[in-house]
Amino acid sequence: MITDSDEGEGGNLADLAGMIPLEIGNLALSNPPDWGLALGVSAAGFAAKSLSAEEGSGLRVRAFTWMVMDQWGVTAGAETAVAVAWELAANAIRHTLREGAEGGAHGRAWLGLVRRDEAVVCAVTDDGPASPLLRAADPTKSHGRGLQLVNRLSSHWGWSRSPSGTKTVWARVPTVW
């Protein structure tokens, strides 16, 4: 299992497990301590990274996703997985971590990558209250097109909210191993 945390010693999968909703798409979870095992994948098929709103976080998310795709031996679809993972992470950074920090609340967010048959599932879990909304692209704005990109690059995407209030936005990206 690959994990990476910007929180140093304090960030671990126990923190992640408490944030994962009981459903990710059609994958039912039973509040387990290990997200990868709950999804039915081996430790070698799961990677997680905590997200931060610090400068350079985009570079770190993309580098982490590239590293995982390389370690998993993805031969086609890696660039798409990196783009989708970054767009999902960017939404959590903008709407939960940055806006939450401005209001005095400290948000938390994690990126999870799950290796499935012929696909990588990119999922971002955060504790922000806003639901993701696929909007029509507005060429006059410099933001708001992230989910449009995710919708075009992934074969499926969706989101769910857990009873504890966290939400997970996920996308399935076809890949070749």
Tell me the count of domains. 1
The parts where pLDDT drops under 50 for at least 5 residues are 6-34
End-to-end distance: 18 Å
CATH architecture: 2-Layer Sandwich
- Overall average residue pLDDT: 77
N-to-C SSE string, H for helix and E for strand? EHEEHEHHEEHEE
Main beta-sheet strand count, sense and barrel state: 6 strands, mixed
Report the top-level CATH class.
Alpha Beta
Q: Would you report the number of β strands? A: 8
What is the approximate shape? globular
What share of the residues does DSSP label as strand, in percent? Answer: 15-25%
Instruction: Give the CATH topology.
Output: Heat Shock Protein 90
Provide the structure class. alpha+beta
Computed over alpha carbons, the radius of gyration is 15 Å
Specify the CATH homologous superfamily.
Histidine kinase-like ATPase, C-terminal domain
Q: Which strands sit side by side, in order, in the main sheet?
A: 1-4-5-6-8-7
Helix content: 25-40%
Key phrases:
6-stranded mixed beta sheet; 177 residues; globular; 5 helices; two-stranded antiparallel ribbon; 8 strands; Heat Shock Protein 90; alpha+beta
